[in-house]
Amino acid sequence: MSHSPDVIVLFSGGLDSLLAANLLRRQGLSVKCWHAFSPFFGKPGARDFWRKTYGLDVHTEDVGEAFAAMLRQGPSHGFGKVLNPCVDCKIHLLRRAKMYMESVGGRFLASGEVPGQRPMSQRRDVMRVIAREAGVADILVRPLGAGLLEPSLPEREGLVDRTSLASISGRGRAGQLALAARFGITIIPTPAGGCRLTERENARRYWPLLTRLALPTSVDFALANLGRQFWARDREASFWLCVGRDKEDNERLARAAEAGDALLSLRDMPGPTALARGGARWPSGIMLRAANLTAACSPKAVAGGRTAAVCVKTGEEEQTLAANPERAAFFESPPPFGLVRDERRLRFPPKNR
Ligand code: SF4
Fold first, then answer.
1. Distance from the CA of 300 to the center of ligand 1, in angstroms?
2. Bigger pLDDT: 134 vs 350
3. What ligand 1 atom has the least distance to the C-alpha of 85?
4. In sequence order, what are the beta bridge partners of 58?
5. Range 7-196 has CATH code 3.40.50.620
6. Residue nearest to atom 2 of ligand 1 (CA)
7. Mean pLDDT over the full length of the chain
8. Which amino acid residue places its CA nearest to atom 1 of ligand 1?
9. In the chain, what is the greatest distance between 2 CA atoms, to the nearest angstrom?
10. Other CB atoms within 10 A of residue 215 CB
11. pLDDT given at position 193
12. Which one of 193, 235, 283, 307 is most buried, by most CB atoms within 10 A?
């Protein structure tokens, strides 16, 4: 017999959502956690760890494609300091969590949000906007800051005992750590965050996708997380090359290759694997420049001071190019963050603020 949970907790894997789940569980409510992941955040592989370590039943859901679409269109509430669309992100996650809740017969939602913790999305006024736009204003409980917030419907109706929830606010962690100690939680997750969209280096990786690709997908953003990123432009066309930094990168790039991509590697000496997105259609002159760069990332090829044989595989086809590591200047690293920020402001001015 399957039981519907009372509450679905939006679970990031951080301490706050872990405490929210515990505050509700200790009231005897049946808790199920919902964990969203994408190329930008999430740890779907940690499900077993969370079950074994914290006794949590976690459902994971890939929201990457919706996030790629949000970034393409520009978030209606604008970006934070980097490329983080926090308000739109929270609205979207709450909507998705609500759909999940309805599909499993849950009664309400809970999140680990703490008033005043984050400047963009955890101001009280913004928290109200988020809940309203997500259509969850009546069913969302925020157990960590409940004592400081208006009572939610589940609290008013007595589904949740408001008096045993917490009254934590602000950016410090002392309240959370004290609560964790009270619950006997000894393995403390690192502070949530971990969202690549808040990091400048990652914004630099993602920005060329938004400005040069017609329709960047979740798979493209996942590829942008790998290796060193290089871009080149020739007339109107852009060319994207990802070069592995180590063995792990090389293996990941080889696995990430899709039909139409080309994989480059040195034939006779150690060196990186490089993935040319859509490389099967690249003009031969551009591919030779990509081979030059691949060779330039091999210390042995550079030290050799002469041409190096670079294999270029596209599907079943393979060719070998004589690459010159000294002619690698055509491809460039992504733009500095200052440029990304300026272009972002021009391209995506805030709409609803
Ligand atoms: S930091 Fe990232 S995951 Fe968190 S709300 Fe902002 S965009 Fe979403």
1. 42
2. 134
3. 7
4. 33
5. yes
6. 195
7. 94
8. 195
9. 77
10. 9
11. 54
12. 307
What is the amino acid identity at position 266?
L
Distance (angstroms) between ligand 1 centre and the Cα of 336 equals 22
Phi, psi dihedrals of residue 296, rounded to the nearest 5°: -65, -20
| 159 exposure class (CB count in 10 Å sphere: 0-12, 13-18, 19+) | middle
Query: Which of 87, 197, 206, 221 maximizes ligand 1 atoms within 8 Å of its Cβ, making it the mutation to test the pocket?
Result: 197
Partners of residue 7 on adjacent β-strands: 31, 108
pLDDT class of 326 with cuts at 50, 70, 90: confident
Q: Which atom of ligand 1 is nearest to the CA of 193?
A: 1
Query: CB within 8 A of 87, min separation 6: which ones?
Result: 75, 77, 78, 120, 121, 126, 129, 130
Q: What is the pLDDT of residue 349?
A: 81
Dist CA 9 CA 21 (whole Å): 6
277 has a pLDDT exceeding 90: yes
**pLDDT for res 1:** 41
Index of the ligand 1 atom closest to the CA of residue 192: 4
Rounded distance from Cα 64 to ligand 1 centre (Å): 13
Q: Which atom of ligand 1 is nearest to the CA of 121?
A: 5
Decide: 159 and 7 in contact? Cβ < 8 Å. no
Query: Per the structure block, which two tokens stand in for 108?
Result: 């309400």
Tell me whether strands 31-37 and 7-10 are parallel, antiparallel or unpaired.
parallel
Q: Which atom of ligand 1 is nearest to the CA of 89?
A: 8
**Ligand 1 pocket list (CB less than 6 A):** 41, 84-86, 89-90, 121, 195, 197-198
Identity of residue 234: D
Summarize pLDDT for 2-58 with one digit per residue, the tens. 589 999 999 999 999 999 999 999 999 999 999 999 999 999 999 999 999 999 999
* Residue 263: both structure tokens together: 């994989």
Return the best residue to mutate from 121, 196, 199 for the ligand 1 pocket (most ligand atoms within 8 A of CB): 121
Confidence grade of residue 119 (pLDDT, cut at 50, 70, 90): low
Q: Which amino acid is at 93?
A: L
